Amino acid sequence: MEEKRYIICIDDEFFILWNLKEQLKKVFGNDFTIETAESAESAKEIIGEINEAGEDIPVVICDQVMPGQKGDEFLIELQSTNPNTKKIMLTGQAPAQAVGNALNHGCLYRYLAKPWDANDLELTIKQAIDSFYTDKSLEQKNKELEKSLFFNPETGFPNFESLIRVLSKPDKTFQNVTIVLIKIVSYPNIIKNFGIEIYRKIVSKFLRMLSTHLKDEAKVYHLYEDELAILSENLETDLIANVEAFRLLIKSDDILLDEVSFHLQCYFSSAIGREDAYYKAKLALFKAESTNSVEFVPYNEDLSTDHHLQNFQLSQKITRAINEKNIVPFFQGIRDNKTKTITKFECLARIRDKNSFLVPAVFLDLAKSTGSIRMIGLQMIDESMNYFKDRTFEFSINLTEAELEYKSFSKWVAARLAHYKMAANRITFEILEDISFSENKNSVNTIRELKSIGCQIAIDDFGVQYSNLSRLLEIDPDYIKIDGQFIRELPHNQTAALLVKGIVDLAHGIGAKVVAEFVSSQEIQSTIESLGIEFSQGYLFMEPSQNL
């Protein structure tokens, strides 16, 4: 059945009201139902019935001077019940104060004076209707967007983003809330044996059972596939006791799904706090997992003594930096020892943190362990290309296993080069020596694909970790960057000098150029030049800087 749409006309003069209705019927025909009222009280009854039926009132046209409640007062009251309805004041006697009052507090859409111009009235109402449905469509899209952002699409329960939004809201009444985290240990086995759809049906039933058990005492969240949360303003001991009763229930009675019983093994943790409540409970959950605890593990201060909490919060900071595009390239010059000028730059990742920057030594290991290192790498490449697109210098960027394992990485690079209208040979990708190609065979293919589109390849930190002849054969590098521990020892250590000379001869033998890293003194630089090393990089020439 098609939904009815209404235009409401309110005026205490019968002839004006009849004339207005007839004009609107000619314009809109059967598209809208035209309702009339001779007072604000009658109009409120009509509007109440329409609201109760859940139907649209795009436009209300109201006179100012009426018996009982005046037009501006009525429109202000209507704003509280029908904020999206477009309100038009049609009157010949409205004082400026009344119009201003309706504008400021009733969101008056338009004021038209009596006698009205028929064309002007028609155009105004059509525009008002268009505006109403544009707003309605936008509101619906916002609701859908909010649902996708803040609710699990499979179970319909609020997700992690929803939980964090609640915890971050200031609440003067409750400084602390209690949170319980539940980790479903059975998750991988159920997925393996029965598939994701069966698991989602099980976890949906589990969530409904939990919500029914808790009633109105707490709110249940479906954070991730295998992680749930319970949030309550009750005392921690009271919430734990309530959840403990549920835990014992599911321990004794399996979850039945289509005549098949499933036993869910879970870890439980709890914490109190506000913005930090989830992170504290997460630390306690880590403890429950590491000790395979069958009991509740409440958070205590001892859990954060090994910097787990700081690491977790730093990981959140890294995630926010990625989302807010706060991955910033710093640049360090690479000197051409023949021309004695800086001709290239290495792009080094930094994370903007308020008024300072975090260096890789602080965030790199955590980024690798959480998997966010790939997004850091992709942002670094894009930001660096953007920076150098209108500059003539060549530049290099480090690659990690995360990028090399990405099968479409070379295609992505080619697309970004085309976007910035940049020649591929201007960019050198530095392959870190701690990358093991044996663990992921796609890495070598990715390097070869990058070379095929014209990018140059360098082996970074050569001389340590996985340095071997087979690696040179696999990569066929354009540059070899000698690790800093050899360069620093050059003037005083004969063994270091012999090793560096051997690396230089080997590099030149396969057609690769050499870059010496960590050049910090003129004495070191003189030795480098005497060995025929083409490029030097270090604090002697330039410290990493945000700008050239």
From TrEMBL:
4-aspartylphosphate PTM sites in chain numbering: 63
GO biological process: phosphorelay signal transduction system
Response regulatory domain sequence ranges: 6-129
The protein's name in its UniProt record: EAL domain-containing protein
SUPFAM superfamilies membership: CheY-like, EAL domain-like, Nucleotide cyclase
Gene source species: Leptospira ilyithenensis
Every EAL domain range: 311-548
Keyword field: Phosphoprotein
GO molecular function, one term: cyclic-guanylate-specific phosphodiesterase activity
Keyword Phosphoprotein set for record: yes
Family annotation (InterPro entries): CheY-like_superfamily, Cyclic-di-GMP_PDE-like, EAL_dom, EAL_sf, GGDEF_dom, Nucleotide_cyclase, Rev_trsase/Diguanyl_cyclase, Sig_transdc_resp-reg_receiver
